[in-house]
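User: Can you model how iron/sulfur cluster sits in this protein?
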Amino acid sequence: MAIVQSLLVLGLVIVTLAFALPAFIRIYAMVNVGSAEPLTHTWKERLASVMRYVFGQQKVLEDRPYGFMHFFYLYGFLILGIGHLELVLFGLTRFVEALGYTPFLYRNLPMMPTSLLHAYEFSQDCMAACVVAVVSIALYKRISGGVARLMPRSADAERILVLIGLLYVTFFVFIGSETLERMQSGELPHHWLWHLPVSSALALAFGDISHGTVAGANMVGFFMHLGVFLGFACYIPYSKHLHLVCAGPNIYCRHFDAVAKPRSIDFEKSEKFGVDRVHELSWKALLDTFACTECGRCDAVCPAHLTGKSLKPKKVLHDIKMNLRYENWAGQKEFRDALGRVAKGKDDVEKAYVPKTPLVAREPISQNDKEKVLPNGAYNIEGQVHLDDLWACTTCAACVEACPVLIDSVPTSLMEMRRNLVMMEADGYPKELNAAFRGLEQKANPWGVSQDRRMEWAESLDVPLLADQGEREVEYLFWVGCAGATDERAKKIQQALVRVLKAANVDFAVMGCEEKCTGDPARRMGHEYLYDQLAKENVQALNTYQAAKKFKKIFATCPHCFNQLKNEYKDFGGHYTVQHHTELLSELLKDKRIPLATKAALKETITFHDPCYLGRYNEVYQAPRQALATLPGVSVVEMTMNQKKSFCCGAGGGRMFMEEHIGKRINLERTDQAIKTGAATVATGCPFCMTMMSDGVKDRGADETMRVKDLAEVIAERLV
Ligand code: SF4
Ligand code: SF4
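Assistant: Here's the modeled complex, given as structure tokens:
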């Protein structure tokens, strides 16, 4: 019997390897067909991330109690994995009993200390019981529909939970009967054992059963437990549980920017721009899709999804993964060849393999098309991203912040698809963007206001020009931005800021008519060519001044300009020390350089709206709050969604220049959140947020009770 058992185990292990290994190899090949993207940072920093986010579960635990439940899955898998190894090795070596030897078991190892053995048995027993309990709760939650972000119900997810549960129920059949056998043989005392708390209790409960029946139950328990374990291994590459294998590598290969930067295009070398076939995405974006746990935390915070659009970041990843499936490639034989070609050079692969199905579904689908729109609003197009979803993204990065396995590719992948539509197809994008593109192309301003009018906002304010400063090096170059120079409301912010800066004796100058749009809206709207031109021209102008020592630092009032100057211009050779004006104002207040009227202070309750490109993109959360906290008469109240969990105003990702036709307007949702605080003022630090929130307040008829101000204006009102 021992020999038969070993042969059966060997057969099962071979079948499992034959089934699972090719599936994992195909996944490796699928990730590798992605386009090139270099890894940054050292292996030590990457390993530190793995320790923090995989073993420390830092992001997973942000969502309690579900994070806590996941903690048991992970550590259950790791701790019980030691037992699974023993199970397989025991089965494979059982045949040696026929030769008079003892098969592999940890307790049979010479020199195995009893204390270590007891610790091992205790950890297995307790962890298996905890996992069974946690899985039962999770299954109940999923089936009862109690967690919105996990809806609609997923057969895959429920199957996995059942498999995990079965794995540890069969564990107790196996170990419980084994414990009883050991008690009956006198190897273990016939009473409850602390190191086998559950198994020994089960053994005692079934203590009257004959030895033969117990041996039979043990053999059945062994094969059931092994069968579920090996079956699970075969199912993993086809299920969402693939994250078990891919999340660790994905975190190791993570981007280290707060939010991943879009990839630049070398327009001199490239013939095709943007992405319309899945292999044109970077390999890291493809790895993301296999690392996704389908937890839905991203959907639960996406402003587009929460206001009734069909965009769901989780579904975007799922569709990319479905599009990547090998059935979509020219043929299985060619795909198998991909492995060999990947080893030789990526170009070869890219030329040889073109997936059949485009990544973007181009046909317009009406919301009334019942067959294609699911009850939850998502489009039922498997393996393709719909145009509506593509253009609904505000690039707010809330999904990036929420993801427990550091998936950050949704906004950048969508942007790359936009590029293809705008630059290659000249179709499939909202036509209202043409006006902004024209303005940027002809006047370097998305509103089409010519450059010679860029100083109109500063008339009668005596704002110094950098070009007029002679040999002098000014402390700050004030980057005004297109909105600040041309939008009527935003001009008032700049004027208030200049009053504050002058009162604080800050040495600054502006570039005036030399300044051009940073190109951020063009980049986010998919016109990378336009962005590339504007970025290069601005960097050239800035570098010339920098080389001539005309300024030390830069500050910007627009977080989109701030993000460009600080982060994205680095890819074009622009390296500057950049602050947002809220950071500068906070510093000036801290140093008591701003003369404030303290007597009869203006009383005001203020809630601060975090602009996404200031907060999530640059992690500036405290500076504006610290500034507000130092102002006489000001008391601050927070919206429920604040700081890194803040809710977009709806203007990012070029949405400022697009109509919002589907669902509730995002700015209205954010305005409602602000109104709920009862604050008299919403303060912000972004001209786009200013427009969106002001429109929202007006739309809600709340302009009598609520004002929208920039931080600079709140301070200017309190100047002596
Ligand atoms: S970036 Fe923002 S809008 Fe876009 S998918 Fe993520 S959460 Fe949604
Ligand atoms: S992308 Fe991240 S947050 Fe969204 S479902 Fe996947 S794992 Fe969860």
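A couple of observations from the model: Residues 57 and 71 are 7 Å apart (CA to CA). The mean pLDDT is 90.
User: Helpful, thanks.
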